[in-house]
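retry 2 of 3: previous attempt timed out while embedding iron/sulfur cluster. Reduced batch size to 1 and resubmitted. Inputs unchanged:
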Amino acid sequence: MANESVVSLVEPEGKSEVESKVESEVKLEASSAANNNGYELLHSKSPLFYDLYERKSELKHQTHYCPGCGHGVVHKLIAEALQELGLQDKTIFVSPVGCSVFAYYYFDVGNVQVAHGRAPAAATAIKRAGPDKIVISYQGDGDLAAIGTAEIIHAANRGEKITVFFVNNAIYGMTGGQMAPTTMVGQKSTTSPWGRRPSNEGFPMHMAELIATLEAPAYVERVALSDNKNIMKARRAIRKALEIQRDDTGFSFVEILSPCPTIWGKDPVEARRWVLEKMTPTFPLNVFRDRKPEIPDGNQPPQRSVADVLEITSKEGAHDISKPKHAHRFKDVKIKIAGLGGQGVLLMGQLLIEMGMREGLEVSWLPSYGPEMRSGSAHCHVCLSKERIGSPLVSRPDVLVAMNEFSLRKFAHEVVSGGVILYNGASLPGDFYAPEVQAVAIPAAEIADKLGSTKAANIVMLGALLEDTECLAPGTALSVLEDKVKKVDMLEIDRKALAAGRRFIEEQAHVGAVSQPDGFA
Ligand SMILES: Cc1ncc(C[n+]2csc(CCOP(=O)(O)OP(=O)(O)O)c2C)c(N)n1
Ligand code: SF4
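retry 2 succeeded.
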């Protein structure tokens, strides 16, 4: 957006007193006057806007909005209010999906662009993380009143201390004129070509009134960009809504009836008139709420550190996560553990990440299971890493622990070349062929059964995994088991199971348990 596109020019001669006063208050750039054919600049764009709209170099002097679009006017009013209130450096603007999706190309403030309808939810998170910030959720009527109905109602109902500017042009602009929840009775749109019929499409939604029925909001007003007088009222409402947030008073909401000349098929002047004549009877202008809400404080939950909650630092002499206890000889290890619900597949992953955390590693655990609690397929993705983990998804595991044949066949092809498959079974299926990996069959269920519980088969496999990969220290595994397994008799079985899994790899794996047809390993 360039200076040239937004300046107002007046002739230097014959100015009234008021004009002269305004002029003296505005900082004029000497060069501008010289460059504008003898005219002087009275108004220049708000410094809150970037100097140039640089999305496309050939269009850098114009905005992406259509001529006469209300979004540009609302942008100007918001920019001026933020500037006057000195809030530029504190402001975070949350742009929606809709014609105003590119608001971040204009406003020189913090900017976040979010998914369709989610601006109030994102604004909630941002405001809670930075309560001293001024957070603006800017939304169209499709965005706020259709796909985002839940987000706006709940943010308002919680009394989030954010400001929402709701630009209601009674239509979906960006996508070419489909009916919005705010489309008026009889108004034609591409999806209501005969005009909106309440019997089929329902009535237009009155969002300001709806929100004003809630207890928590502090300020709710509807304004219109229909003529200069109403635009001045809109200016005041926008400023007031921001002041309410600045003063920590509560949730503020301004609905702005706004022209969309392009989709309405009108010229900009007609479109403004249409706002006044057609929209305001359906959406009356009003201040629906203006008061400080009484919201009881309630009990605050005790504030505890993550380490406390996870009980990893609170116990005497327990694990100091800041110091790695094991010299890890890897950058990261990616593990997939798969089997049936009830086989302890997800638990095995949780035990591994607990061990990793105690050794100071970055860890992630991503479970995946079907609707059945028992006997349905289940698997989890585990990452142990010395560096921050980008994604918890393991699509190419270094190690696959397959607790049944189905999982072996399903995931074996994913294992990286040179990786390991640990299979819960007396031997690998006769036709199983994976020449580039080391596949080990471990009769874990049988071993666990002999120890006193088949349930401990997952711990046998865990012992085998730890022995084979040497990714974590033996002592860590034991201490995690001791902390996590509450039943004394089960803990005893698990201890033995862990040792049995290790022993199996140590003794058996070398002498024939690796039963790939091609004799790999
Ligand atoms: C999840 C999703 N659904 C649908 C769309 C398509 N879409 C883009 S903008 C829009 C509606 C925009 O209308 P409105 O919020 O009134 O804003 P305007 O363009 O009129 O300013 C829709 C449905 C999308 N981008 N994402
Ligand atoms: S389609 Fe309508 S809302 Fe979108 S930029 Fe054009 S005038 Fe504005």
